[in-house]
Amino acid sequence: MKPKLTDEQVEREIREAFELNYEMLQLEGGHSLTPETRNMALQQVLLYWKKLRSVAESVTDTEVKLTLPEQSTPKKRKFTIEGVVDIVKEEGETWMYDLKTHDATYVRANKDLYERQLNVYAHIWQNLRGQRLDHTAIIATAFPDELNKAVRTNDAKMIEHCMKTWEPLIPIDVDQKHVDAIIADFATVVDEIEENKFNPPDVARLKRKDTGDDQLFATRVCRNCDARFSCSSFREYAMGTNDRGVSAYRKYINDLGDDVDVEDWKTVNLEQSQFITDLEVAAAPIVVNAKQTEKIKLHSDVLNFAPLFSYIKKHKEIPHKKEPEFAPYMKLYKELVADIANMPGWYIWVNAESKKNKIVYIGQSYVGKSAPLRSRIQEEMLDEYVALWGTVHDPVKAERTLDEKYKYKYTKEIARSAKKVGATHIVWCGMEGLTANQLDTIEYNLIEKWSPVANHKRLKYPESYPELLSNVEETLNKLIIKL
After folding, report:
1. What percent of the chain stands above pLDDT 70?
2. How many CA atoms lie within 13 A of 313 on its CB side?
3. What is d(CA 187, CA 192) in angstroms, rounded to the nearest whole number?
4. What backbone torsions phi and psi does residue 179 show, to the nearest 5 degrees?
5. Which 3-state string (H, E, C) describes the chain?
6. What is the rounded distance in angstroms from the CA atom of residue 246 to the CA atom of residue 292?
């Protein structure tokens, strides 16, 4: 049995896990947070841990996936209901917790909204899984207004006071008698979605406040709904807000939050931008032809996995991303990719030791800010590390162990990544101004010519860029030969 961690050790691990999760979300979404916003989010996690430590330490099964398959709608459409909960088994009782990013006051005032969902989860747990269940509850993670203000102003005394009165755990009573009716409601909604029948709340509803909520429905719900731009109720609400008509609607259709939210978003994403924008690329795409061949200048280099392999040799068991052994690996690969160009291009996973086909996988970046070469390769180092552990140690065991640690949630993704086992380097090349069509076309041709073991067949692109393709092939081939 592992020794119990001290408070300082727990907080350190929370901070490391927070940074890792932020890194992953940043790579996946292409968005960043200001230091102030990041710190606010971290404080929420730390205070949440301090408040509900006894629950967190008692969790026996985390992120349990509950599935109710093979349901039928009134019009004979098949659908499945899925959900994720945490389970605590302690002192002869079993609790089911569902985390919500809602305010506890709102949850308490609208328990009926949460009873329906938990009724279905309880039905799956008890009747389909045959497991005992004694209690269900919602954990509302949003800070109360007073605590939120105290954290923002770093008022230690007020934080301590608010922590004593904050009660984010709300028990919810469930009644299995209502399960069939709830599932029937799900089924009706599925039919309506499939038939494109969308009935938004009327304008009067948008102007009302829910019990326990100090915001209008239009503010709390509509602001976070991307469909508001084409919603008849929201258009009517926005146009009728004052006498400015269309100008008023423009205000609402462009509503991205309050002034602080918008300014934070602009500031941090401008700071993260290190290369030309999509608009600049679109305005001046490079069209390569015979007369322009001399203008082609490809940047290229090699990323050697040796430093990563040295670390992996000392850690035979592949870690979960949240385990402490993953953090040093993450630090290493971030240092390795730092010199890769922030521009569009192509990259190849290479097995330099193979006497047959050295080409393991061929990929490309994307046009724009979200995934240039450096970000794209860094993302693969983060998500596909099973290939590196499998190259150094037993590949079958590495794949199986990682699958078990993620509780079989990503079996297909892990198996796909494991196809890159054997790779020892990544070679890459790129240039400014490449279009999405050029990236796709060249990638297709490279895959067709070199038949990498980890790629699946891509769609054929009718466009041809022979001079660019020739330059890319020659550049990458020279790098591979030198390995």
Report:
1. 83
2. 6
3. 9
4. -60, -45
5. CCCCCCHHHHHHHHHHHHHHHHHHHHHHHCCCCCHHHHHHHHHHHHHHHHHCHHHHHHEEEEEEEEEEEEEECCCCCEEEEEEEEEEEEECCEEEEEEEECCCHHHHHHCHHHHHHHHHHHHHHHHHHCCCCCCEEEEEECCCCHHHHHHHHCCCHHHHHHHHHHCCCEEEECCCHHHHHHHHHHHHHHHHHHHCCCCCCCCHHHHCCECCCCCCEHHHHCHHHCHHHHHCHHHHHHHHCCCCCCHHHHHHHHCCCCCHHHHHHHHHHHHHHCCCCCHHHHHHCCCCCCHHHHHHCCCEEEEEECHHHHHHHHCCCCCCCCCCCCHHHHHHHHHHHHCCCCCCCEEEEEECCCCCCCCEEEEEECCCCCCCCHHHHHHHHHHHCCHHHHHHHCCHHHHHHHHHHHCCCCCHHHHHHHHCCCCCCEEEEEECCCCCHHHHHHHHHHHHHHHCCCCCCCCCCCCCCCHHHHHHHHHHHHHHHHHC
6. 48
pLDDT at 286 over 50: no
Asked if residue 166 lies in contact with residue 51, where contact means CB atoms within 8 angstroms, the answer is: yes
CA dihedral 211, 216, 220, 222 (to 10 degrees): 130
**Other CB atoms closer than 10 Å to residue 319's CB: what's the count?**
18
For residue range 219-252, what is the model confidence (pLDDT) as tens digits?
Answer: 778 877 877 777 888 878 877 755 444 445 555 5
pLDDT at 2: 55
How is residue 258 written in tokens?
A: 């309050």
At 306, list the tokens.
């040796």
Q: Where are the domains of the chain?
A: 31-194, 203-263, 279-482
Q: pLDDT tens digit string along 132-141?
A: 888 889 998 8
Asked whether the beta carbons of 316 and 394 are under 8 A apart, the reply is no
What amino acid occupies position 225? Answer: C
CA distance 59 to 169: 14
* Alpha carbon distance 7, 50 (integer Å): 10
Q: What gap in Å lies between CA 180 and CA 379, rounded to an integer?
A: 44
CB 82 within 8 A of CB 117: no
Cα→Cα distances 87→96, 97, 302, 442, 446, Å? 5, 6, 47, 49, 49
Extract long-range pairs of 98-102: CB within 8 Å, 24+ residues apart: 98/136, 98/137, 98/138, 98/139, 99/138, 99/139, 99/141, 100/138, 100/139, 100/140, 100/141, 101/140, 101/141, 101/142, 102/138, 102/140, 102/141, 102/142
pLDDT at 394: 95
Confidence tier at 124 by pLDDT (50, 70, 90): confident
